[in-house]
Design a protein that fits this description.
The protein is 50% helix and 11% strand. It has a single domain, classed as Aspartate Aminotransferase, domain 1 (Alpha-Beta Complex), CATH 3.90.1150.10. A four-stranded antiparallel β-sheet has the order 1-2-4-3, covered by helices on one side. The protein is elongated. It is of the alpha+beta class. Helix 2 runs parallel beside helix 4. It starts with 18 loop residues before the first helix and ends with a helix. Strand 1 and strand 2 form a beta hairpin. It has four helices and four strands; from the N terminus they run ααββαββα.
Length: 134
């Protein structure tokens, strides 16, 4: 009842969603708070960024403009070209890791909130191998 508007659908439109989406969102927010996922993501992001920074420094200039420090796991970097970025993404997919490209030559990470140290370790191992292979 606390999520129901006083006059349901009074101002209903595509952008407002509907009551079931409001209930889903309330449950998602509850789970995020219950498991302290914002703090978890911040902590994981700090570790991941520091390790990516080390990897970038040892990548012979393949990883450029690393950014996203102190933004949780929302981290991105550029590659020298779109072709090099696409080759890296393909190699990562071949290794079972789905990553996204963005813009002209950017790789970006947008993992789920439950992404943790173990997943970061796997990502970094696979990424190191993919950088060497491309």
């Amino acid at each position: 009842m606390e999520t129901r508007p006083a006059q349901a659908y009074r101002n209903f439109n595509t952008w407002m969603g509907d009551p079931i989406r409001a209930l889903q969102a309330a449950t998602q927010i509850s789970v995020i708070k219950q498991h302290d996922l914002v703090q978890h993501t911040a902590s994981t992001g700090r570790q991941l960024y520091d390790q990516l920074d080390q990897l970038a420094k040892s990548s012979s200039g393949k990883m450029l403009n690393l950014r996203g420090k102190d933004n949780g796991t929302f981290i991105a970097w550029d590659m020298e070209s779109a072709g090099q970025r696409d080759a890296l993404l393909k190699e990562m997919r071949n290794q079972g890791v789905n990553m996204a490209g963005c813009g002209d030559a950017t790789v970006r990470l947008r993992p789920m909130l439950i992404f943790g140290s173990k997943q970061a370790e796997i990502l970094l191992e696979k990424l190191d191998g993919a950088l060497r292979a491309t």
